[in-house]
Design a protein that fits this description.
seven-stranded parallel beta sheet; binds flavin-adenine dinucleotide; flavoprotein; globular; 2 domains; 17 strands; 27% helix; alpha/beta; five-stranded parallel beta sheet; Rossmann fold
């Protein structure tokens, strides 16, 4: 069986939950294998974790001089692995970095990107993915016409897991130092808090323009913290400076698919829906009964979010 390659996602020496989901998706279309770029000190722990998550093979590379690989280098490495093996698909988490990597990789492989995938299957030997289209109003199934498909995967889309592999085969990869070596002019680290990441959270509480100010966003944060959720924001809230851009949900932000999505003071424009419509349960609080968000909400409260959200926070905290 061909291998289905997964780009392992790690943080602080541990696998991020999306990696197990990527491996479960990979198992549907091939023998799940993981490409792992990590510090040698973290390697054994991560290989064991990848095996437990279903990787039958782990292809390991250590970044030269301990510096993280730039996206171009990672694309070159993954392209080399893909070109020399029998590979049915490459699966990458759909994040800003993941999407950039996918594009570069598809060019190198002369194939195509199947973006924002939420399901994958083999049909007559062809890898076919499902993707929400037109803001989630339609689901489309599509494939590439040539080459190894590069799939960007929307986290929290499937719940199955791959069968664990007790002792995954380990293949060492060599990273060629690029010539000329790139110069890093500036490093920017996103602030990391105690909240789960947007794409991994099972509950996301988002605030929109209706929240009114950056200070008042605490009402959104308090509700999120009560349920261990992540905080999101609409683009209008981001553009108004209420919340940082990295938390924007939607077509030009992050796509999320949590178990529960709570929208506070968000009208439900199609560009916002594009990033949250696949959430399992949608709860909306809006003072306008005609707000489009209510068309897709499973539970809706017509009311002032500053009255409703604190009561919800209190009731949940009691439980
Ligand atoms: C190319 C393009 C890409 C875009 N990408 C994105 C994207 O990625 N994500 C995104 O979100 N948008 C995106 N947008 C913008 C999108 O079209 C909307 O403008 C935006 O989503 C509106 O945000 P909002 O719902 O917070 O604000 P508004 O549409 O202004 O809605 C605010 C809502 O809050 C309600 N409200 C006000 N006060 C209260 C209160 N006290 N209690 C309860 N409810 C209250 C109002 O009734 C209203 O429904 C994009 C637009 C374009 C053109």
């Amino acid at each position: 069986m061909p291998q289905a390659l997964v780009l392992a996602v790690t943080a602080d020496g541990a696998l991020r939950p999306v990696t197990a989901e990527l491996l479960a998706a990979a198992a549907r279309v091939g023998d799940p294998a993981a490409v792992l770029v990590c510090d040698p000190a973290e390697r054994d722990t991560l290989v064991t974790a990848l095996g437990a998550a279903g990787a039958t093979t782990v292809l390991v590379a250590a970044p030269p001089a301990g510096a993280p690989l730039l996206t171009g280098e990672l694309a070159a490495l993954t392209a080399a692995v893909t070109a020399t093996g029998d590979v049915s698909a490459v699966l990458i988490e759909s994040t800003f970095d993941g999407r950039e990597l996918a594009g570069r990789l598809a060019v190198r492989l002369d194939s195509g990107v199947l973006a924002e995938s939420t399901d994958v299957e083999l049909l007559d030997g062809q890898v076919v993915v499902t993707q929400p289209a037109f803001g989630g109003a339609y689901s489309v199934r599509w494939t590439t016409t040539r080459g190894v498909p590069v799939i960007t995967w929307r986290g929290n889309s499937i719940e199955d897991t791959a069968a664990p592999a007790d002792a995954p085969a380990v293949v060492e990869l060599t990273v060629e130092a690029p010539a000329p070596a790139p110069t890093v002019l500036e490093e920017h680290h996103e602030p990391v808090g105690d909240r789960p990441e947007l794409t991994a959270a099972s509950v996301v509480v988002s605030g929109g323009r209706g929240v009114g100010s950056a200070e008042k966003f605490t009402v959104v944060e308090q509700l999120a913290d009560t349920v261990g959720g992540a905080v999101g924001a609409s683009r209008a809230a981001v553009d108004a400076g209420f919340y940082p851009a990295q938390f924007q949900v939607g077509q030009t932000g992050t796509s999320v698919s949590p178990q529960v999505y709570i929208a506070l003071g968000i009208s439900g424009a199609i560009q916002h829906r594009a990033g949250m419509q696949t959430s399992k349960t949608i709860v909306a609080v809006n003072k306008d009964p005609d707000a489009p968000i209510f068309e897709i909400a499973d539970f809706g409260v017509v009311g002032d979010l500053f009255t409703v959200a604190p009561q919800l926070t209190e009731a949940l905290a009691e439980r």
